[in-house]
Amino acid sequence: MSLTMDITATEHGIVRLFAIETAQSFDHSSLTHALGIEILDPEQVDIITVSDLDELGLEGYLALGIGIEPDEIEAMRPQISALKGDVALVRSAAFGGKATTLTPQAPLRWVSSFGETPLDTTAPPITTSSASGTISNPAPKQRPTNNRVLLWVLAAFAIIVLTTISMFIRITP
Question: For residue 24, which of 83, 86, 81 has the smallest C-alpha distance?
Fold first, then answer.
């Protein structure tokens, strides 16, 4: 029985964890092929060697690096702790907002799917005097228009034109 995963075009905030069970090198194109799809955004995929995470470990990376709720990680702790070698973390955004059906095949083994915690972007209002919107200096005075300069330029141009015309009139008999 093969596992299939349907991803809707509107899905967001889901991270899928796959174990990579091969001793050969595995890259993004290999992952795309093993998932049974054609396009996968490499910016939204992490291929990690678990031993490279040192003290942080995969559990710490999921919590601190990806933003998975600790309760979700705790529920999967035995499966996550048992992972050795390489793993792939695939975010919903990796599919480019298109409906996709994944059919993971060897050397991939699906471990779990997690929900990312949305970032808290709220902030308390700034109450300093510089943020109140007052300006300490008066507004600068309006500069006079350049109508007078424009009139002088036009007058000079008219004088040049008239001088040139009068010179041609004197030259021709």
Answer: 86
